[in-house]
Amino acid sequence: MSTDAKTLYGILLDRMGLSVKNGWLDEQGRVYIIFPVQEVMDALGCADNKATKLFRELEKFGLIERKRRGLGKPNLIYVKNFADPRFRNRGKNDSGNADSEVQDAAKSRGNKTEWNKTEGSEPDPFSSDAEDEPDERTRLEAYFMQSLEVDLLLRVCPDEKDTIDQIVNLLVDTCSSKRRMLRVAGDDKPAEVVRSRFMKLNADHIRFVLKCLAESTAPVRNMKQYLLAALYNAPTTMQLYYQNQTNHDLSNRG
Predict the structure, then answer these.
(1) At residue 66, does pLDDT exceed 50?
(2) For an engineered disulfide with 36, which of 74, 112, 118, 231 has Cβ 3.0 to 4.6 Å away?
């Protein structure tokens, strides 16, 4: 199986949790997701033909089943998860039976660190940019609200509202900064490079960052710098994370 197919499979598995939370079941009680080709293109940065090929590759390995609805409607996708008993598939037509008592996926973190603008010796890369034009900030905020599907994120992750708001504000601050260099993960990077990468983020990247933050056991001393680094690295680390997760799940198959 190709590396990109493993990454897509990991993303689809992650989306299954949203479907369970939203009660997306077909008439047979099977959990499904809707993930059009365009969303694959956005998530993996690939062309239409490549996205379609990846879906076929997952079908070839028996990891997904697609139900075509016609009339221009997106396909229903049944993801076969061999590691999670909620979605485990025991046959071709049993692609995702949901447990009637699916646990609430909302996670509470006992130590949510507030944004620290003075912690440590690292300078705040945005501290002197208070004169940004309101029109520019408003435009950027509207852009990220749409590109990150913030309304959907808030519906499926209501307990993460504060963090999601912080992420949007951080992205707006970064992309409206007038500085030529920005400090990310201890390194000074050209501002245009940072802006370009942030403008390409989508909802899957944000959910991945939220997942990493929830699973982290180490205390976060400076939340702003932590999120800045996590967002900048998300496109790369998300791919590696899902590849490893898929390898682990496939090793349990059988």
Answers:
(1) yes
(2) 74
- Is the CA virtual torsion 66, 69, 70, 72 positive or negative? negative
User: Is the Cα torsion angle 146, 113, 210, 228 positive or negative in sign?
Assistant: positive
User: 7-16, 123-132, 144-153, 175-184 — which is least confidently predicted?
Assistant: 123-132
Round to whole Å and give the CA distance between 47 and 107: 35
Distance of alpha carbon 254 from alpha carbon 252, whole angstroms: 6
CA–CA separation, 181 vs 190, rounded Å? 5
Q: pLDDT tens digit string along 34-52?
A: 888 888 888 788 888 998 9
Position 254, amino acid: G
Do 31 and 20 form a contact (C-beta atoms < 8 A)?
A: yes
d(CA 173, CA 192): 13
Instruction: Indicate left, alpha or beta for 119 from its phi (over 0: left) and psi (-120 to 50: alpha).
Output: beta
Please tell me what DSSP assigns to residue 140: H
pLDDT at site 84: 52
Of residues 64, 93, 70, 65, the one with CA closest to residue 5: 64
State both tokens at 210: 């939220």
Tokens of 32: 């499904």
Return d(Cα 249, Cα 236) in angstroms, integer. Answer: 20
